[in-house]
Amino acid sequence: DYYDVSQEVLAVYLQQVPDSTIALNLKACNHFRLYNGKAAEAELKSLMDSASTSFEFAKELIKHNLVVFRGGEGSLQVLPPLVDVIPEARLNLVIYYLRQDDVQEAYNLIKDLEPATPQRDHLKIAQQFFQLVGGSASECDTIPGRQCMASCFFLLRQFDDVLIYLNSVKSYFYNDDTFNFNYAQAKAATGNTSEAEEVFLLIQSEKIKNDFVYLSWLARCYIMNKKPRLAWELYLKMETSGESFSLLQLIANDCYKMGQFYYSAKAFDVLERLDPNPEYWEGKRGACVGIFQMIVAGREPKDTLREVMHLLRSTGNPQVEYIIRIIKKWAKENRVPV
Length: 338
Description:
Elements: H1 3-16, H2 21-34, H3 37-50, H4 56-69, H5 75-78, H6 87-99, H7 103-110, H8 119-134, H9 143-155, H10 159-169, H11 177-189, H12 193-200, H13 206-209, H14 212-224, H15 228-236, H16 242-257, H17 261-274, H18 278-296, H19 304-313, H20 319-333
Helix pairs in contact: 1-2, 2-3, 2-4, 3-4, 6-7, 8-9, 9-10, 10-11, 11-12, 12-14, 14-15, 14-16, 15-16, 16-17, 17-18, 18-19, 19-20
């Protein structure tokens, strides 16, 4: 971070070697850090003038740095051919994609890289910086200061404290989708799924509404609020993917915990078709028996029995026929057509 000191040392060196490509480039980079992109670009001019036709690396270095100095302008034209030539080109292209909100392309570029610093360390540093700003005398009573403290506690997963700070500023952010997204998550995390559902449904941004975090939290709220059909409809609207599989797991398990066995059975049935894991059969078996018990107790429509039997028969497990015999016997005794 000692760019001014670096400049002083470079000045001495450039007096001896005025056409040094490395030194001139470093001088331009220092200007970028100390001043701005235009100042850095002006320093690169002498390097462009001195780079020989045989010194191809200098040309590539100049092209790369000009993109950086110009705030990413020309990234797609210049950086892709350089990702395996200049190490920083890959990272700067990642930054460009992130600024364009193209997370998938950014991820594709770095998915095979091993991080030098673990994510947990980054989160810890972020939490400390949020706390530093939010707890400062100049910011503690400002809206940004309280948002910082909310972010600090969000990263610490102390959601009761998150709500203290978000509640203090929510009147300023009624129609702010990002605020409502965070507010709803905090509400849901503290068990207030009824209010969380209401806030989630205020969000208008299609980007957020297609985010798996949004979908999974909203599905969980629907289930906890005894609206499992709406959670199931969220799954039906998704394309088949790893995320839709994860949502199925959430629906299957959360509905089971809440005694919403019909939609639990449907979710476990799809999971079993996609992955013949014995645990999915066990989940479906338990959910189907749960539905049957609710029908016997008069808490579920009797015509649901037909679908229960259909779900059971989709599994080639020897236990199926035993369960179906018991269901048929009860249905016959109670004159329920199956």
